[in-house]
Design goal:
mainly alpha; single chain; 332 residues; 67% helix
């Protein structure tokens, strides 16, 4: 025992220990870099991606403070201060796009979390690997479909005269033969259509993440619960769901950061940019798109900058609240 204790004390510290020691003393040693070289190599694609598509485009923020024209470049245009920001807050569409953006984003966060966790719990109960792979693949496939393709699918379903949904309603007697429901002329239907489409497309990826977390739970906990006579619901309530709370919290914090923005493809391609549907489908991102099409580059850049600043603020606030409640579940 003395020999083991002595050898343990004299053993070379691991890479994680070296990194921790180096961080504590304010420096990063060459040994820690070499020990983690393979992780740095794996991180190169992500680093390049963020540099090219996130950091370099930040130079475009200068447009938010300019009367931007093509010929002037980034620094050759007239600086007008915060006028572009003022234009956004006084536009007649301001109330509508803010209301729609916040309502849809919050609904997607709450319903998406509930549905994804529920589906992951159901998948966790499937014992046959063939069925499990089939369900995971079929649910994950929509996540890789372009919104353009999904838009064609929805148009086939909701085509006013030849759509599948209209034909089904006529078949069961909800509407009279020859009549039709013009889905693309009535905004009342679209909160439900957009919410269902978003959940259908994203449930596969979200449930897969939670399912992976469920597979890491100690199986002895479930065996002990079965011996005590716990039902499947009680096992999920007292073992599975509490074990998912850290993952649910982190993903929710990240989702809250996007509360002030929406998926442009969903809100543009699915309703087909029909103007009469704007009261139910117009959000900040579609407003920015129309600004770019109209040549209002400065205002569009200003609105995008507001989105980023609000998202950063929301992430910090949400993480601070979580950290005060339970520091272990916080993002940073």
């Amino acid at each position: 025992m003395a020999f083991l204790s002595k050898s343990t004390k004299q053993s070379k510290p691991s890479g994680v220990e070296v990194v921790s020691y180096s961080r504590k003393h304010g420096k990063l040693s060459n040994a820690s870099f070499k020990d983690n070289l393979q992780f740095w190599i794996l991180a190169i694609p992500a680093i390049v991606y963020f540099v090219v598509f996130a950091y370099i485009p930040m130079f475009g923020l200068t447009m938010a403070f300019q009367e931007f024209q093509y010929g002037g470049g980034f620094f050759g245009n007239e600086f007008i201060g915060f006028r572009n920001f003022e234009l956004f807050f006084v536009t007649q569409d301001f109330g509508r796009i803010i209301r729609n953006t916040l309502a849809y984003s919050s609904t997607f966060i709450v319903l998406g979390l509930v549905v994804q966790v529920a589906v992951s719990l159901l998948l966790f109960e499937i014992s046959r690997k063939v069925l499990l792979k089939f369900y995971q693949t079929t649910m994950l496939l929509p996540n890789f479909l372009s919104w353009v393709i999904v838009g064609f699918f929805t148009y086939i379903l909701f085509n006013p005269r030849m759509g599948v949904i209209g034909s089904m309603l006529e078949f069961i007697g909800v509407i009279q033969p020859g009549d039709f429901v013009d889905w693309y002329a009535d905004p009342r239907y679209w909160p439900f259509i957009l919410t269902f489409t978003n959940i259908w497309r994203n449930v596969g990826m979200g449930s897969l993440i939670y399912y992976a977390a469920l597979t890491g739970i100690d199986a002895e906990l479930y065996e002990a619960a079965k011996i005590d006579g716990a039902s499947k619901w009680k096992q999920a309530k007292h073992i599975s769901i509490p074990s998912l709370i850290p993952m649910m919290t982190i993903l929710s914090i990240l989702a809250i950061g996007g509360l002030f923005r929406g998926d442009f493809g969903l809100f543009f391609q699915i309703p087909r940019d029909v103007g009469i549907l704007y009261p139910a489908t117009d959000i900040i991102d579609t407003y920015i798109y129309r600004g770019l099409i109209g040549g209002n580059f400065g205002e569009a850049a200003a609105v995008g900058m507001i989105q980023s600043l609000v998202g950063l603020f929301l992430v910090i606030v949400a993480n601070t609240i979580v950290r005060k409640i339970n520091p272990e579940n916080s993002l940073f």
